[in-house]
Design a protein that fits this description.
It is built from 12 helices and 23 strands. With about 450 residues, the chain is an alpha/beta fold. It folds into 3 domains: about 60 residues, no CATH class; about 230 residues, ANL, N-terminal domain (Rossmann fold); about 100 residues, GMP Synthetase, Chain A, domain 3, CATH 3.30.300.30. It has a 7-stranded mixed beta sheet with strand order 7-6-8-9-10-11-12. Strands 13, 14, 16, 17 and 18 form a 5-stranded antiparallel beta sheet that branches. It is globular and about 65 Å long. It starts with 8 loop residues before the first helix and ends with a helix.
Length: about 450
């Protein structure tokens, strides 16, 4: 059960208590977080630290390994559907759930993620920016990449720094690079031409959709290099992707990956017509495709709720065009209902980021007695730009121009940061709560 180092003591308590974990292996900083909650964790029997033991209740990791004895042998084989690991979801819209994956999960990433989407070759130097506690690491730099035999760069970065990232790319001759949209939005605000990125041949992004304006900025700053967006979840391997062999349509999630039957369906599991919004769904019956999770562990209600007929519903909304490209609309919980219109936040966010004053934006629905909800925007401005009522009005008019008029944000709030999960996804549920409590 991998965990990010950024977790708080409260997070550690939730994960150990929820899972009934009997052992914890941590670094020195993590040991203090466990100690703060130890008397409330009755299942915890073994604690080991990679580093100096802070107290007698801890043993060293080396000592634990030395006393563990031999592992499984050929006489005790592991089956493909045996449980392998548990990842916690990022908790974008609710408390994190435990995602149980089988042993075959690794094989799914080797083919679908590393070979087809990342296009890895034996001579590549690959870097995915991700804490190893999240499924993004399994996607981006562990299972598939090791199986492909490529050189993998791992780095504990701490707080992201644009110049440091670009320096690592240049100094190490990174040829394939994957980062979340949050970091690409930060990188395009710098002078990319100051760094030698000539070794870079393939760029990727996953975690949230990448705004078309950011795609254009990266291409312009790196001499025409495209970012190939991919889509999947903690529960899955790569489900949809943009490939080098297909034209990229900026803002699109791409097309379904090999072996994945992905459609856009209504709440009853019926496919919807092209260009209509619906649930992103993966066919899991009669045979569950490789790389799909087994269940939400200890949560049969949540497991049942995300399955309808032959489909697993991802909880995300999209539409499919006549050529088979999928276009992300937002989390099902994030879709805004305003005066009978259904508005996906991503399109409005992309429009805002296209404005030269906006570095990053998040859009949510605010409860409204007349319209059900109104579109409300939270914007981080580029350095040197001041948030004023005049700028707010300018942004509203800008969105009116580049999207349908009914989608413009009726409220614009200027902020210095956006609430995010430790994996970098915007917590729109927290923004909605701020609005309900009158804190925005």
């Amino acid at each position: 059960m991998p965990a990010p180092t950024m977790l708080t003591s409260r997070d550690v308590h939730y994960r150990i208590e929820r899972s009934g974990a009997v052992a914890a292996i941590v670094d020195t900083e993590g040991a203090a977080k466990v100690d703060a909650m130890r008397d409330r964790l009755p299942t915890l029997r073994t604690t080991a630290v990679a580093g100096e033991a802070p107290s007698a209740s801890w043993q060293s990791l080396d000592g634990l390994l030395a006393s563990a004895g031999d592992g499984p042998t050929a006489d005790d084989p592991t089956a493909a559907q045996d449980p392998m690991l548990v990842y916690f979801t990022s908790g974008t819209v609710a408390y994190p759930k435990m995602v149980l994956h089988p042993q075959s999960y690794a094989i799914g990433h080797a083919a679908i993620t590393a070979r087809y989407w990342q296009d890895l070759r034996a001579d590549d130097v690959h870097w995915t920016i991700s804490d190893t506690g999240w499924a993004k690491a399994a996607w981006g730099k562990l299972f598939g990449q090791f199986a492909a035999g490529v050189e993998v760069v791992n780095m504990n970065m701490g707080k992201p720094d644009a110049d440091l990232i670009l320096d690592v790319l240049a100094r190490n001759g990174i040829s394939t690079f994957c980062a979340p949209p949050t970091l690409y939005r930060m990188l395009v605000l710098t002078d990319l031409r100051r760094h030698d990125l000539s070794a870079l041949r393939h760029c990727l992004s996953a975690g949230e959709p990448l705004n078309p304006e950011v795609l254009r900025g990266w291409e312009e700053g790196t001499g025409g290099r495209t970012v190939y967006d991919g889509y999947g979840q903690t529960e899955t391997v790569n489900l949809c992707a943009n490939y080098r062999c297909l034209p990229v349509r900026p803002g699109s999630m791409g097309k379904p990956t090999p072996g994945m039957d992905v459609h856009v369906v209504d709440d009853a599991g019926n496919p919807v017509p092209d260009d209509e919004e619906g649930n992103i769904a993966v066919r899991v019956r009669p045979e569950r495709p490789i790389g799909m999770f087994l269940e939400y562990w200890h949560d049969p209600d949540a497991t049942a709720a995300c399955h309808v007929g032959d489909w697993y519903l991802t909880g995300d909304h999209a539409r499919r065009d006549s050529d088979g490209y999928l276009w992300f609309e937002g989390r099902a919980d994030d879709v805004i209902t305003s005066a009978a219109y259904r508005i996906g936040p991503f399109e409005v966010e992309s429009a805002l980021v296209e404005h030269p004053a906006v570095a990053e934006a998040a859009v949510v629905g605010k409860d409204d007695p007349e319209r059900t909800q109104i579109v409300t925007a939270f914007c981080i401005l580029v350095p040197g730009v001041e948030g004023t009522p005049a700028l707010a009005k300018e942004l509203q008019e800008h969105v009116r121009t580049v999207t349908a008029p009914y989608k413009y944000p009726r409220e614009v709030h200027f902020v210095t940061e956006l609430p995010k999960t430790v994996s970098g996804k915007i917590r729109r549920t927290e923004l909605r709560q701020r609005l309900r409590e009158g804190l925005a």
